[in-house]
Every structure is written in structure tokens, then in C-alpha cells.
Amino acid sequence: MTGADVASLQGTAEAPQERVDKRTAAAPILLSLKGIAKTYGSVSALAGIDLDVPNGEIVTILGPSGSGKTTLLKIVAGFEMPDSGQVELAGRAITYMRPASRGIGMVFQNYALFPHMRVAENIAFPLEMRRLPRAETRDRVGRALALVGLAGYEARYPRQLSGGQQQRVALARAIVFEPRLLLLDEPFGALDRKLREHMQLEVKRLQRRLGVTALFVTHDQEEALVLSDRIAVMNRGSIEQIGPPAEVYSRPINRFVADFIGESNIYRGKVASSSGGMLTVMLPTGETFVARGASPRPVGAEVGLVLRPEAPTRLEAGDTADNVASGSIEDVVYVGDAIKYAIRLDAGGQMVLRWPFHRNVRPLSVGKTLRVGWPGDQLHVVDWK
Q1: What is the pLDDT of residues 19-50, one digit of tens each?
Q2: I need a labelling partner for 257 at 20 to 30 A (CA). Which of 69, 139, 240, 340 fits?
Q3: Which residues, including other chains, have CB under 8 Å from residue 344's CB and lie 6 or more apart?
Q4: 82-86-88 Cα angle (round to 5)
Q5: Backbone angles phi, psi at 167, to 5 degrees
């Protein structure tokens, strides 16, 4: 982030220290959640959440419906109170502070725009609540509209805008008062796929430009992979794993994460041997697969083998690999940039393959036999539980 970028929104020549881009390993913690727990009757919505979000980072809370992600966001925003635990913003406890006093911007899925107010009035609302002078309010609204690409739309009403434009207005309203933290609760859920993907990139661009810290809630795995510096995968009120998108995708910590993030082939087996970072695992079908770089596990331990669909490659006669499987194609699905093949394995069970689509290469047909292989370092081992 440059000083000019911040000045564009703030109207000042110098950025405050906390708005400087510090997206490094040494970045100070802006948001800290400590032991956040919440129950509704007999249902545990949050089971002691610990989470630190550094300055300038986008962290996505990802999980299925009912995992507790929206409850967690509401507690950060101040719309819900935890049963126990503490919320800190820039080192200050805000657990029981009123939402309006927290200095947090929020973007909702349903936009939450005032239908009787024009675009400029909607965006100016948080500034008027803070009693900023009219001239400064007008300048900030203009800069916020320019940042989201809606300069010239000041006099329109929300009903006169498309869904994507309404979401841009909601985003402009959330950033116009220069929040230290931006919360986004499934903001693109009501948009069509193409517009949703465009807005994802727009939010990422804007967040980078302003250096604002963001906590993003979604159940869409692809959205999380596109937007995030780190992903926190939630399940039943707990964070199962948190890490950079590539790490969470390629090295899931358990079977739930492997199954929820992206698409996986997951096979249950028992450790037949373990030596020097190499595990040999026997499946119930009698097949043995080799995983390299895996953590040591005792012989006989029940494990899950995670194989991403893009990892195997087609083997011709005489080709070898650490792991080999063969079978016949049961289904072929064209998904735009790739072809997905569902394979019935000769030894029993199934495998899904996802290979890039090439216009000059004819897709394989249903019923064709296929032999595939993959290296041991592409086979990830998780506990089976």
C-alpha cells in the first residue's frame, strides 16, 4: 500500500501507523480471539475458539452450515455476546463494547442498504453517525465511490442498481469511515457465479490497496482459496485447521478438512510398514500404496490416504510410478477447463480424476480401461477418525 492510496481515502498526506501494510510474518496482531465459547440451549455453537489475525491479512472462516462461522463473526462485530472468552482489537478488550464503538466495518449478504436513501446517503450514513463535517463527508463519499468503481452513481436509489452494484455500495459504506477491521459475511452469496468471481477479485484488490485487515465468512471453498491469506476451517464449533490456502488444500490435517476443501479421493487403510518418512499402507482390497514424507505411524494404525484428482497421470505400457491403479471409466464430465473421469478400479472402489481440457485432445470415452500412477509425495496421510 502506498501513502497516496491511503490519502485517497483519508484525505491526508500521511497514513496512520496502524494502516501501513505489514503483511509479513512479523506483522502485529490486530484481532485476537481467546477461548470464545457460545451455546444456544443444549447446542454448542462455539467450543473455545482461539484465533489471531495479523494486520493487513485476509483470513477466511470456512465451514459447512451450522459450523459456527457466522456466530463467530457476530461476536467479533458485537451483535452477539460470548458465554466465555475475550475479543481483543489492537490489544484492547472489546468483548462487551457496543458494535458502533468498535470501529469495525461490515458487509452483509443481503447488502442491508436503506431503500429510501440514495447511494451517497447510504455511504454517508456511518460518517453522519460520527458527526463528521459535511464537506469532509462529501469528500470521503466521493473517494469511496471512486474506489469501488461507482463514481457518478451518487443520486441513484438501491432499487435502480444491479446486485453487484448494490454490493459495491455496501462495500463503500463499510470502508468509508476507515475501519481497522472489515467483516464480510457471505457477501457474494446472492450473486451469479461470474459476478461473484469478479467481486472476489475486486475485494482482494481493494483490501490490498487499503491495507485493511479482513475476516471473511463463506461456505464456498473456491472463494476461500481465491481470497485468503489464511483459511480457518470450522466444524461443529471448532477450528479444525488454519493455514495458507495451498497448505490447507495439499496438506489437510484430518479427513474432514480433506473432504471439505476441494475434491479428494480418500481411502481407508492400515499401515503395513513405516521407515524413513515412507509409509506403506494396505487397503481392504489388498492393494498397497506408498506415501513419502509422511509422519511416522505405528504398524497397524488405521489411516486415511488423501489423493487429489489432479495428481494421478495416465501411464502407458512400460511406465512405472510409486503408486499404480487401473480401472475402467464409468463417467466423463466436461467442466470447462478440465475433464473429470469417474473410474471403477479393478481392485474395487472408485477414483475421480481431473485433467486439463485440451481442444486438440479427444476426451477418453466411457468403458475405456485406464492405468494411472502418482508419486508417493502426492499421497497425503491423515488419521482415520
Answers
A1: 333 444 568 999 999 999 999 999 999 999 99
A2: 340
A3: 327, 328, 329, 330, 350
A4: 125
A5: -65, -35
